[in-house]
């Protein structure tokens, strides 16, 4: 276990969960007052990275000096990680300041299922670190459930060994239809122009090819995207030993990637094109719900996650609520 820090105090909260000797997530508050979070991060980056490697996620709470989007950007910059642009993602988002953009802007009554950021994308490098920041609390609801990915893998393998074996062998195929512009009513409503950061179809075609994504243009400016096959299981260096993780968007796609152009049950399949068994997907969702913990947001909270170790979701909420995000390599 990492030694204590002179800048950060470990805090116990009712929503934490224990796996062996590891408490999930780690929760930190200022060990001294006043304390500027960005400055503390610069002083204790190595200690914080060791803590993240062990716990998978860190919630920073009680930092009054970190209350704006610019403050959040300063903290992300303080870690010194390379920025990862949000190219190829499905969720509608808006850039706010610096490296900061809004979290998924889908309607507040919709639940966003568990997923790893960009796990559905065949990109050269997936986000390694994911940051969330609470700029404004919800009137009610709006918690962010989080879940250790290796736990899902182990429970699914125990219950459905043949299914998991096939997933490891053939991976997953993701299919989605996008319009030209963003559709804020859909959790996957990002249009192809903002997905590929261009209004030119030829440029979009080239950028899709770099993501190993096939495009089939349809009428009215829409495009069908085919991604994969993509590995559904990865191996992650974790404490105390490497573990296999459930790094995919299978359950999220199958149950939530539906809108005016997409049937969610057709958005994801085995990598060889065969349909997925619905009963197993819903059982996987049940396992995720049972093993997850809900992070209740307070203004100024900052949640840092290892995107490979931890899945995250979003519960419905009553506005206002504003959560900001940043992705890093």
Automatic annotation (TrEMBL):
Q: Where are the transmembrane segments?
A: none
A GO term for molecular function: oxidoreductase activity
**What domain of life does the UniProt record list for this protein's source?**
Eukaryota
Boundaries of every TauD/TfdA-like domain copy: 42-324
Query: What InterPro entries does the database record attribute to this sequence?
Result: AlphaKG_dependent_hydroxylases, TauD-like_sf, TauD/TfdA-like
The answer on whether this UniProt entry bears the keyword Oxidoreductase reads: yes
List, alphabetically, the Pfam families matched: TauD
Q: Which UniProt keywords apply?
A: Oxidoreductase
Give the matching Gene3D superfamilies: Clavaminate synthase-like
Q: Does the keyword Ribonucleoprotein apply?
A: no
Name of the protein: 2-oxoglutarate and oxygenase superfamily protein
Protein source organism: Perilla frutescens var. hirtella (Perilla citriodora)
